[in-house]
Amino acid sequence: MIRSHLPWPLRWAAAAVMLGFSAAIAVWAFEFGREIAGLDSGAKQELARLRAEVGRLSSENEKALSLSNTAESLLRTERAAQERLAQQVRQLEGERQRLRQDLGFFERLMPAEGEGLQVRGLMAEPGDSGQLRFQMLVMQHGRNVAEFNGRYDLLLSGQHDGKPWTLALPGGARPLTLKQYARVEGTVEHPAGAVIKSVQARVLDAKGAVRATQTLKL
């Protein structure tokens, strides 16, 4: 048998090298473990921070959505209010226009002088075929006048088929009641081929006596 004998100093040197290498590996493993542990702790802290940031952003987003919904609701309410106001303005404008027309109508009809029952502002214009539109104001002037109860009638005059022609209010005189004034308007049916040259309005009392008249030439 042949045995290899190393000197003891070499054996101790080899053992020392092995022990040093093992110690180095152990130290490296320990430091690496510490680093891993430190990274894990930092990652947890970063994750916690990110979660808190996400929570904060979610809360702010919810607040922003709530404010947006509130603003949209207020905007819809404001638009609805503006539409209602615009409709009221249109209605008031129409009412103002109507009142101005009525005022102008009454101003034209106010008599310069005289008392008693009067027919003022008789107007008439052809409408559709065989129809005449009319309008007039019956007024009663004086102090402490009593309520008037009577009737009004219209008489249309002209030509029809080349001959003189007249037509009273179809159905006869119509009821009329007033204290100071009454605005009367309506339509009269007549033959389509008739040419109307004048319209006479008459106001009759309860006994049939003529109290006021006015004639309009067309």
Helix count, DSSP H or I runs of 4 or more residues: 1
Cα end-to-end separation:
161 Å
| Low-pLDDT residue spans | none
CATH architecture verdict of the largest domain: Sandwich
Please give the radius of gyration in angstroms.
54 Å
In terms of structural class, how would the helical and strand content be classed?
A: alpha+beta
Count of the domains = 2
Describe the 3D structure.
It is rod-shaped, with a radius of gyration of 54 Å. It has one helix at residues 8-109, and strands at 116-126, 131-141, 148-160, 163-168, 174-178, 181-189, 195-204, 210-217. It has two domains: 7-109; 113-217, Sandwich (Immunoglobulin-like), CATH 2.60.40.10. Strand 3 and strand 4 (163-168) form a beta hairpin. The protein has 218 residues and is of the alpha+beta class. The strands form two sheets. Strands 3, 4, 5, 7 and 8 form a five-stranded antiparallel beta sheet that branches. The mean pLDDT is 78.
Features:
alpha+beta; Immunoglobulin-like; 1 helix
Question: How are the SSEs ordered, and which strands pair?
Answer:
Blueprint: H1 8-109, E1 116-126, E2 131-141, E3 148-160, E4 163-168, E5 174-178, E6 181-189, E7 195-204, E8 210-217
Antiparallel strand pairs: 1-2, 2-6, 3-4, 3-5, 3-7, 7-8
